[in-house]
Amino acid sequence: MTVTVTRPPAADAMAPMAFFDRDGVLNEEVDYAFRIDQIVWVEGAFAAVRRLNRLGYRVVVVTNQSGVGRGYYTEDDVRSLHGQMNRIMLENGARIDAFYFSPHHPEAALAAYRADHEDRKPRPGMLLKAMRDFPTERERSFLVGDRDTDIQAAAAAGVRGFLFEGGNLDAFIAGQLERP
Q1: What are the residues whose beta carbons fall under 8 Å from the beta carbon of 129, sequence distance 6 or more?
Q2: Interatomic CA distance for residues 18 and 134, integer angstroms
Q3: Of 12, 21, 77, 119, which one is the catalytic site residue?
Q4: pLDDT, tens digit (0-9, with 9 covering 90-100), for 125-159
Q5: Residue 83, H or E segment
Q6: Residue 20: which of 178, 170, 175, 179 has the closest Cα?
Q7: CA of 96: how far to CAs of 19, 22, 99, in Å?
Q8: I need a labelling partner for 11 at 20 to 30 A (CA). Which of 32, 57, 86, 115 fits?
Q9: At what angle do helices 148-157 and 125-133 cross, to 10 degrees?
Q10: Residue 99's beta-bridge partner residues?
Q11: What is the pLDDT of residue 106?
C-alpha cells in the first residue's frame, strides 16, 4: 500500500475519520482512471468533503488500484492523480487529508503486485493503517463506498459502512450524519 498525506495530522488531535472509496463515489466510475482528464466529479463531491471538513472529520480516500498491478499505469501515476484531485478539491474549498491505495490483485500481470494483499478491499488494511497514522475516534468514523467489498472492509475495520448508489454525494452524507 502506498499513501500520500496531504496534511500532516496533529500528534494529539483525536478526530473521526470519513473514508471514501474513489471511483464511483467521489468521481464517476471509469475503468483504470489514472489521468485527471478521466475524472468527472460526482455531483456534491466538493460540498460533501467541505461539510466533513467543517465538522472536524479527517477525510481519507481508500482505493483499490489494480491497474498498477496489471501494468496499465504506475504508482507514481496514481500519486500524481491524487495530488491533482486534491488540488482541485482545495480550489473548491475542500480538503482530503490522505490518499491510500492498494496496487495489488491476486491475478496481477506484474509479479510484484500479485497477491491477495491485506490492503486490498474487502480486507481492511488501508483503513487500519489510516487509523494508526491519524488519532481516530473510531465510533464516529465511517466509510462510503459503492461496492459490497467497500462495506466489508469497513466492517472488518470496525467502522460503519454506507453504500452509495449514486446521486448527490453531499445529500447522501448529510442524510447519513443525521442517523443515530
Answers
A1: 1, 3, 100, 119
A2: 12
A3: 21
A4: 999 999 999 999 999 999 999 999 999 999 999 99
A5: helix 75-91
A6: 170
A7: 10, 11, 8
A8: 86
A9: 50
A10: 4, 61
A11: 87
- CATH number, domain 2-175: 3.40.50.1000
Grid cell for residue 105: 490483485
29-81 pLDDT, tens digit each: 999 999 999 999 999 999 999 999 999 999 999 999 999 999 999 999 999 99
How does DSSP assign 99-138, residue by residue? EEEE--BTT-SSGGGBS--TTSTTS-HHHHHHHHHS-B-G
Catalytic residue among 23, 97, 119, 150: 23
Partners of 2 in the β-ladder: 101
Per the annotation, the verdict on 21 as an active-site residue is yes
Tell which residue, 30, 93, 15, has the closest CA to residue 65. Answer: 30
- Angle, helices 169-178/45-54, rounded to nearest 10 degrees: 40
Q: pTM of the entire structure?
A: 0.92
